[in-house]
Amino acid sequence: MEQKPGFIRNNEEWIIWLLAGEFGGSVTPGTLSARIGLPIDFLHDNLLYLERMGLIGLDRDPGKKYPEEIALIRLAREGQSLFEELKERPEIGDDLFG
User: Fold this and answer.
1) How far apart are CA 29 and CA 63, in angstroms?
2) Is residue 98 scored above 70 in pLDDT?
3) Which of 59, 44, 58 is nearest to 12 (CA)?
4) Best exposed site among 1, 4, 15, 77 by fewest CB in 10 Å?
5) Mean pLDDT throughout 51-55?
6) Do the beta carbons of residue 3 and residue 57 sit within 8 Å?
7) Are the CB atoms for 43 and 36 separated by under 8 Å?
8) Per-residue pLDDT tens for 77-86?
């Protein structure tokens, strides 16, 4: 299990990184929550923000209420593009100037 890279700045980037790099593009909220180590209600706003930005898609279960209404998190094309950008970032402490 990979630790969070130093160049990841926030939960949103960490979610994208894990979706693309570790989970193959989709994950259940429970699995993501366990992997990140935060309860889903802590991540809920991050997921809604990523959905509004078009970086992920959320499948909802209409029979459930907050925060369990999210059934599946899917990486969108724009999220994959962000993942590719994140891969190009230098690690913290890398010599940027050669």
Assistant:
1) 16
2) no
3) 44
4) 1
5) 98
6) no
7) yes
8) 999 999 999 9
Q: Say yes or no to pLDDT of 53 above 70.
A: yes
Domain of 72, CATH number, reads 1.10.10.10
Cβ atoms of residues 57 and 47 within 8 Å: no
Measure the CA–CA gap between 17 and 20, rounded to whole angstroms. 6
66-77 confidence digits (pLDDT tens): 889 999 999 999
Domain ranges, residue 33: 26-88
Q: Is 1 a member of any domain?
A: no
Domain count, the chain: 1
Closest CA to 67 of 27, 20, 30: 30
- pLDDT confidence tier of residue 5, bands split at 50, 70 and 90: confident
